Amino acid sequence: MRMRLALAEGRLLLSFVLGLTDGILNALVLATATILRGGHASIEVGLKVATVALVTAIFAVYVAQYSELRTQLARAGRQLNLTSRGRLATTHLGRAVIREALVATAVAGTASFSGSLLPLLAGALLPGPSWLPLAISLVVLGLLGAGIGSVVGGSPPRWSGALMIGGALVAALGYQLRIV
């Protein structure tokens, strides 16, 4: 209940959108060459790509979120004319910063892992063309873009198109790099 409320209020929206987008883009850049060269997505490749997405999302989001929140505490300390630097970080506010950064990291990590695993898992388990995971990834990016467009008061079709084009460009890069 609290997590849904935080997402609805937008406090964790950045973490969710960042994680989901990161996961999908990781899948596109890492697995496109294998998929388009005639290989089907496998559960093993899906888990490897999802693990990479999870680890990078956890590291990047925690460092970014924690440093942003600690910067806000430092700024508040200066505005309050506190004499010792980092004083607020040793209070319950400092512990709240750690908790908030960990929650944001968990949301981003879960979204990133899911965003990369689910399209590849669908390609591994469902009958269909080998490019099915790529299509699913682009459709999910399009749906995410439409949702973002609605939330920010923008044009859902434009947001949808922009994310799908960006995903296609990342897939093309992945095909050229042939990482997996």
UniProtKB/TrEMBL annotation:
Claim: Transmembrane is one of the keywords in the record: yes
Keywords, sorted A to Z:
Membrane, Transmembrane, Transmembrane helix
Q: Kindly list the residue ranges recorded as spanning the membrane.
A: 12-33, 45-64, 101-125, 131-152, 159-177
Domain of life here?
Bacteria
The protein, known as:
VIT family protein
